[in-house]
Specification:
The chain is about 35% helix and about 20% strand. The chain is built from 17 helices and 19 strands. The longest helix has 20 residues.
Amino acid sequence: MSERFSRAHPAAPDGRPHAVIIGAGVGGLATGALLGAKGYRVTIIDPLDLPGGRAYAYHQDGYTFDAGPTIITAPWLFEELWRDCGGELREDVELRPNTPFYRVRFNDGTIFDYSGDRQSMEDQIARIEPRDVKGYRSFLDESRRIYEVAFEQLAAKPFHSLAFTAKTLARLVRLGGYRSVYSVVSRHFRNDKLRTLFSFHPLLIGGNPFSATSFYCLIAHLEGKYGVHHAVGGTHALVRGIALLVTRNGGQVRLGETVAAIETEGRRAIGVRLMSGERIAADIIVSNADPATTYGKLLRAFPRKRWTDAKIKRGDYSMGLFVWYFGTDRRYETVDHHTMIFGPRYRGLLDDIFRNRKLADDFSLYLHRPTASDPSLAPEGCDSFYVLSPVPHLASSTDWLAEAEVYRTRIEKRLEETVLPDLSRHIVTSRIATPLDFRDRLLSWQGAAFALEPKLFQSAWFRPHNRSEELDNLFLCGAGTHPGAGLPGVICSARIVADLVPHPREFATHGHAGSGSVT
C-alpha cells in the first residue's frame, strides 16, 4: 500500500470535473470512491504515509496495530459502497462476526458477555437483577423505534435545510432526543451495573452517555440485528479496499502532502494550496478534516458568517484518547477480541473527563486483542493489543510529555491485575498515542478524538453541514459533520455528499477547472 499510494505527480486532466478531497480518512476515501463512480476525476490529499486517517495502521516489529476504529457494525453499508463503485466487497475484504460482541469486566470482577443472543443476555441480566429482564426487553423495543427513524430514515439525509429540520423536529422530539442516553437507559434498568452496560456505547464515538442525545440508544438495536464484525487483516484492510475503489475509477490518493489553505474566489472554492506551495485547481472541494480545522485554519482568511473563530471556540468537543499499542511474546487465550474493563467510577470519571477536564487517578479501558480472531496480526505464538483510555482533550492542563509514560505504567499495572497476568514480563514492542498526537498528526482540533461532542444541539442541523454554509462548492464529510462519528456515520456522510454534489454533466455545460496543478 505504501508503494501504490504515495507521493505522486498530479494526474493529467481528462475532461472530467475535478473533485479535490482533503483527508484520506474513511469518510474522505468513501466520498472519493463514490464521486469517481459518479464521473468525477478525484484527487485525495493526506499528510500521512498511509491512507486511513484515524483508521491508520502501525506495522512494528512484526506486529500490526489498527490505530483507531476496530468495531465494524452495519456491514451492508460497505457492501453497498462496493456495489455502487462497480465491485463486490467480498472480492477485496473479508468481514467476520464477533461472538460475543464484547466481554465486559466490572470493577468487582463481574463478567458479562454482551452479544446478540437474546436468551444469553437475559440469563446474564437475571443473575445481576432479575427484575431488569423486563427492562431489557422494553429498552430493545425503544432502541428499535429510535433506529427506524434516526438511522434508517435520517442518517443519510442532509440537514442543511432549516425547513427540512423543522419538518422532522416533531418526530425527533417524540423520539425523546432531548433526553440523554443514560436517562433513557435508567428508565428501563434499576441496577447500576446494567445502566452502565447499556449506556456506554456513546463513548465509542466520542459522546458522554450523560449528555449524548438518546438517538444513540439505536446502537443496541443496530448491533443486535446486524452484529459486530472485524476485518480479516485488521480494519486497515477495509481502508485499503476503499482506497482501491478510488484508484480503480481513475482517482489518485496523494500521501505525504498537507493542504495549507482552501483558495477562494467570491463564494466559490477554486482549489487548494499545499504546504509545498503547489496549487491544485478544483471544481468542487470536499473536506474530510475536522470542521474546526477546515474553517478555523484552511479558511482562516475567509470572512465566515456562521463558523467563525468565536463559534468554533465555543463548541463542546469530544474527549481525547490515550492509546497504548503493545505486542507480547505469548498469547492470552482467555482474552476476547473486544474487552471493556470498567473502573470504580462511572459518572464521576466522565465528569472529570468532559466537565472538569482533569486527568483522573482511575480509568475505564477498552482492550483490543485482534489476534484472538486473526493470528496473522502478530508473530506466531504472540499477541497484538491496544488499550484505549478516554481522557480530557487538550483544553485540560495535562502535560502529556511528562505524564504519558506515568499513565501508561498505571494502565499496565491495571491490566496485570485484571486480565493480563505478568504482562510486564512479556511486552516486546510498544508505542503510545496521546491527545498531542491527535492534534499534531491527525490535525484534530484540541486533540479531540471525535471532533464535536454528539449532543442534541451539536447534531443534525446544528452540526457543520455536509454542504458548507460558507462556500457554494465546498462539502464536508467525516466524523465532524452529519450524522457523526463511527464507521457507519462517516460512510453515511460520504453518501450524503455524493448525493449533494452537482452531476458531472452540469460542468460540461458551464465549464470546469479541469486542470491539475496551476503552480
